[in-house]
Amino acid sequence: MFAEHENQAFLAQLKALVVLNESLKRQELQFKASCKEQLEDLQVSVHFLLRLVGCTVLYTALYCTVHCTVAAVILPASNLI
After folding, report:
1. Which range of residues forms the domain containing residue 12?
2. How confident is the model at residue 80 (pLDDT cuts 50, 70, 90)?
3. How far is CA 77 from CA 43, 60, 61, 74, in A?
4. Across-strand partners of 68?
5. How far apart are CA 11 and CA 69, in angstroms?
6. What's the structural domain count of the chain?
7. Do the beta carbons of residue 72 and residue 46 sit within 8 Å?
8. Are strands 55-63 and 68-76 parallel, antiparallel or unpaired?
9. Which residues of 3-17 are buried (b: 16+ CB within 10 A; e: fewer)?
10. What is the pLDDT of residues 5-47, one digit of tens each?
11. pTM for this structure?
């Protein structure tokens, strides 16, 4: 009888963890989508601002599970071939 109750408690805890895991996966996907959207918006802004000051930008987007990072290297237009 005690083992049955213990198994039910374990199963309930396991189900709760599965639900939590699924929720965290959805949140991660939403976070990544939000980062991508923000990165694209920032890239557009950078292009616009650099055109205003007469420069060209070379940039690479670096993604990981938690962070979205943009590394930017600004080159004066006179240095381009």
Report:
1. 2-79
2. very low
3. 18, 19, 22, 9
4. 63
5. 40
6. 1
7. yes
8. antiparallel
9. eeeeeeeeeeeeeee
10. 889 999 999 999 999 999 999 999 999 999 999 999 998 888 8
11. 0.54
